């Protein structure tokens, strides 16, 4: 009897020691790797099991509609939030200045590839800003050369791109999308789609010519809003001849461009469904036009933020999952809010390798 109670006390003592050591190790580990702890969020420790629960993702942990895991066929990695432009409607704002170390970003991209990723799109903030585009170039090269991804693309405002970048990394890039919301310089200024008085359109045409010279497919993205909704862009788009012209209806995201803690207030840019349709009707002769209404856009993108957390937009804001670097892709993607049907409906899967495109150049 006496021996049995001694053994039980000893076991309890050992268990207590193990859990204390585990807690200490976890707290040290979280400090060394800030993305584990979700820097930028107010954090609170859920338990010593390694679960870090933030006020934002606590809701998700309780959510009933956690999704079954889907394949991350096409992923958008917003590795930086910093930008040199001030677009008034921007829905991915500079809430942190964090960028993962290069080797960690590569590790995450490898995990995605192992989970079935075929296309990666690098976005931001402005992706050419960090290390003057060298960080981006290294990721582009890694994804094409090492991971052999069928499609590697970038979305940029085009203002920071240099010819040298194309000389070094152009061969690894399939598609470069440049955002342009107006062919009137003054309208771009009013929107904030500019750095100071520098010409946004000048950069657009320069980059378009480099794409031709260095054999990169050229794409254009436009956000339709109150400032450009009456414009007719047919002539300019026809002349620039992009492989795709994505036309977005200006979207509001709480905490980004709407609501109290947002860095932008974009309500004055918002247009109705009918106004958006009228813009589309004016451009029916442009065959490369791909329209994206708010409904089509909101949940049809797999978005990874600067910590490699999927962002769930279903509630009209960007609720983060845990980082794929901590819990893996299969677990994190269940909190992505991704609507695969809508992704296919909006034509998310298309000929996306430049090797398969019949580029005229
Ligand atoms: C957030 S930006 C980041 C990349 C780069 N800075 C740029 O502007 O192209 C990615 C894309 O989202 C678009 N975008 C930004 N805010 C938007 C909004 N409120 N509604 C719809 N599209 C938006 C941009 O025009 C761009 O094509
Ligand atoms: S939409 Fe404008 S402000 Fe936002 S990241 Fe792109 S260029 Fe910067």
TrEMBL record:
Which residues span the membrane? Answer: 12-29
Q: Where in the cell is it found?
A: Endoplasmic reticulum membrane
| Membrane topology value | Peripheral membrane protein
Cite the Radical SAM core domain residue spans from the record.
69-289
Which cofactor names does the annotation list? Answer: [4Fe-4S] cluster
Q: What's an example of a GO molecular-function annotation for this chain?
A: catalytic activity
Q: Known PROSITE patterns for this protein?
A: RADICAL_SAM
Per UniProt, the keywords (alphabetical) are: 4Fe-4S, Antiviral defense, Endoplasmic reticulum, Immunity, Innate immunity, Iron, Iron-sulfur, Membrane, Metal-binding, S-adenosyl-L-methionine, Transmembrane, Transmembrane helix
- GO BP: defense response to virus; innate immune response; positive regulation of immune response
Question: Gene3D superfamilies recorded for this chain?
Answer: Aldolase class I
Q: Name one GO cellular component term.
A: endoplasmic reticulum membrane
- Where does this chain mainly localize? endoplasmic reticulum
Q: Which family does this protein fall into?
A: Belongs to the radical SAM superfamily. RSAD2 family.
NCBIfam families per the record? viperin, viperin_w_prok
Q: What is this protein called?
A: S-adenosylmethionine-dependent nucleotide dehydratase RSAD2
Q: Which organism is it from?
A: Myripristis murdjan
């Amino acid at each position: 009897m006496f021996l049995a109670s001694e053994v039980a006390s000893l076991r309890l003592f050992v268990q207590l020691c193990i859990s204390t050591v585990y807690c200490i190790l976890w707290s040290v580990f979280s400090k060394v790797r800030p993305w584990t702890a979700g820097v930028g969020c107010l954090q609170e420790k859920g338990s010593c099991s390694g679960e870090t629960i933030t006020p934002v993702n606590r809701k998700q942990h309780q959510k009933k509609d956690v999704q079954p895991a889907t394949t991350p066929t096409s992923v958008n990695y917003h590795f930086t939030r910093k930008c040199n432009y001030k677009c008034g409607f921007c829905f991915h704002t500079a809430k942190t200045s964090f960028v993962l170390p290069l080797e960690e970003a590569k590790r995450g991209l490898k995990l995605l590839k192992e989970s079935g990723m075929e296309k990666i799109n690098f976005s931001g903030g402005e992706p050419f800003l960090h290390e003057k585009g060298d960080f981006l170039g290294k990721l582009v090269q890694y994804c094409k050369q090492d991971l052999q991804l069928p499609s590697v693309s970038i979305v940029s405002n085009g203002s920071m791109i240099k010819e040298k970048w194309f000389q070094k990394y152009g061969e690894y890039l399939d598609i470069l999308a440049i955002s342009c919301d107006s062919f009137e310089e003054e309208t771009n200024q009013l929107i904030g789609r500019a750095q100071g008085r520098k010409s946004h359109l000048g950069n657009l045409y320069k980059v378009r010519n480099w794409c031709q010279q260095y054999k990169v497919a050229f794409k254009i993205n436009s956000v339709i809003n109150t400032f450009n909704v009456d414009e007719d862009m047919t002539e300019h788009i026809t002349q620039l001849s992009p492989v795709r012209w994505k036309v977005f209806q200006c979207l509001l995201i709480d905490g980004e461009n709407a609501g109290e803690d947002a860095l932008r207030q974009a309500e004055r840019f918002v247009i109705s469904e009918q106004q958006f349709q009228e813009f589309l009707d004016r451009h029916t002769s442009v065959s490369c036009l791909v329209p994206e209404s708010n409904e089509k856009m909101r949940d049809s993108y797999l978005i990874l933020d600067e910590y490699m957390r999927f962002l769930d937009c279903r509630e009209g804001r960007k609720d983060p999952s845990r980082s794929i670097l901590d819990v893996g892709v299969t677990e994190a993607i269940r909190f992505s809010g991704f609507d695969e049907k809508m992704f296919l409906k909006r034509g998310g899967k298309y000929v996306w390798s430049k090797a398969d495109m019949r580029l005229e150049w």
